[in-house]
Amino acid sequence: MAELVWTIAGSDSGGGAGIQADVKAMHSFGVQTCTAVTALTAQNSLAVEEINAVSSEVLESQLLALEADLKATVIKIGMLANSTQIQLVAEHLAQYKSRWERPPVVVFDPVAIASSGDALTEEDTLDALKKYLLPQVDVITPNTQETQVLTGVYLIGPDAVRDAARKLRELGVKSVIIKGGHWDYPNGYCIDYCWSEGEEYWLGNEAIQTPHSHGTGCSFASSVAACLAKGYPIKDAFILAKAYINQGLKVAQRFGEGRGPLAHAGFPEQISDFPQVIEAGSWLGDELEFAVSEEFNFAAGFAPVGEELGLYAVVDSVDWVEKCLAEGVKTVQLRIKQADETTLEEDIQCAITLGEKYQGRVFINDHWELAIRHGAYGVHLGQEDLDSANLVAIQQAGLRLGVSTHGFYEMLRAHNYRPSYLAFGAIYPTTTKDMTGQIQGLEKLRHFVPLMRETYPTVAIGGIDLTRAPQVAATGVGSVAVVRAITEASDHRQAIIDLKRATGES
After folding, report:
1. Cβ neighbours of residue 472 under 8 Å, at least 6 residues apart?
2. Which residues does the annotation say bind Mg(2+) (predicted)?
């Protein structure tokens, strides 16, 4: 069953924003949308002519009907026309959160001003928003102007953005996404910011020059809501929503005499639509004056592997490295998590020698210094290792680099480094590592592969066995990595034959 998302917002008679934009954006991400209309606006591409707020009785009747039969995973809130509506919606949200077996996640786009410049509320609703609604909000998505109105912080730089996000959290909001479409800092770029659970995320891309941007705020928040309902973590919802907007702005067109609406062009699958993950040391990071650590060793562009990697065995001993290579597995990773320091270097050296003997690709997990010292074919690193490993040394030694990713944000972060291949996981739950909250599944893998396969060899890993391998291979991923499917098989030779056949390698 598709996930249910509600949108509580106003109707835009022009069709570009409000409820109309919300439904289009949510459907692009494959969720079912229910609506509760707060106001009927009379507007076109030139102006908002009139706001006709629905009565409290009419709004409440919609909420009661939905609650009785169609409970939401996520509730997105847009335009609320007056303080009475704000208080009513806040009261219902509080009840949902206390009564529902699965409390909904609440995403709030604080719509106050239309892109035409017209006010969208009947009165000053600021105090009611702060007092009643914000304590019920899980994710808020203001633009720079709305952020300044809500917090009093003028966004003159990254520290001010962080300060504004902190003030919003003090008002009760759990996570903050500040959209930078109106920020223009640095000049000519669009920078977006997200804070959630102690982590911050910055995205940036060159500003897309088009006058046809009506409905971007509604569509962005609706995309975030839909992605959260689909089980994406907020950092993935953030980057997917941004890519969705970039994609829509590129093909937006005029329909009336004024500004045209954002185009709704489906799930984003072109890497050119995705923003850059901004890190310290990058050009945008420098422009934003991000602090760079003394041990900064950023490098991008690693030696290629030349082709897809085929059946990929991840093993924890030299003995298994040789068993796999001897049976024709061309790519093997030595992953020793509980290393015996007295034998670790000898094990790595032996594994590298075996790779040369069998003309296979042997990657060394984590221990990049020893891999360099003994001339390994390649190194495989996790996301956290990118902050500590000497990537310059790995690159200069000519080693290939593989990087693990768990979702869209990490995938785009890894893209900054231009590694030799990308690994996507965990596709299924696995007993070898606690991957709580990071299970991707086949649906997400089907989105990862077309996004990256033109640029990198791709690998799927995590919980894959003989029964699952054909479905994984059918996504188009270039390589299937297995951990236990070979080493725990009763006959590892037959297991390798079967896995190769199941993944189309032989």
Report:
1. 427, 442, 445, 460, 464, 480, 503
2. 366, 385
Residue 333 marked ligand-binding: yes
Q: Is 131 annotated as a binding residue?
A: no
Task: Cite the residue boundaries of each domain of the chain with CATH code 3.40.1190.20.
Answer: 4-183+211-272
**Per-residue exposure over 70-108, b if at least 16 CB sit within 10 Å of its own CB, e if not:** ebbbbbbbbbbbbbbbbbbbbebbeebeeeeeeebbbbb
Measured CA to CA in angstroms, residue 484 lies from 316, 441, 481, 487 at distances of: 10, 18, 10, 5
Helices marked H in 135-232: 144-151, 158-170, 216-229
Q: 431 among the known binding-site residues? A: yes
Name which of 226, 169, 228, 156 is nearest 195 in CA terms: 169
Query: Is residue 44 a known part of a binding site?
Result: no
130 annotated as a binding-site residue: no
Q: What is the CATH number of domain 4-183+211-272?
A: 3.40.1190.20
**Beta strands, E only, 88-161:** 105-108, 139-140
Whether residue 336 is annotated as binding a ligand: the answer is yes
Rg over CA atoms, the chain: 25
Mean pLDDT score of the chain: 93
User: pTM for the complete prediction?
Assistant: 0.94
463 is in an annotated binding site: yes
The dihedral of CA 411, 413, 417, 418: what is its sign?
positive
pLDDT digits (tens, 9 = 90+) for 308-322: 999 999 999 999 999
Tokens of 278: 């901004």
Any known ligand binding at 365? Answer: yes
Residues of the chain with CATH 3.20.20.70: 311-503
284 is in an annotated binding site: no
The answer to whether 430 is a known ligand-binding residue is yes
Q: Which CATH class is domain 311-503?
A: alpha beta
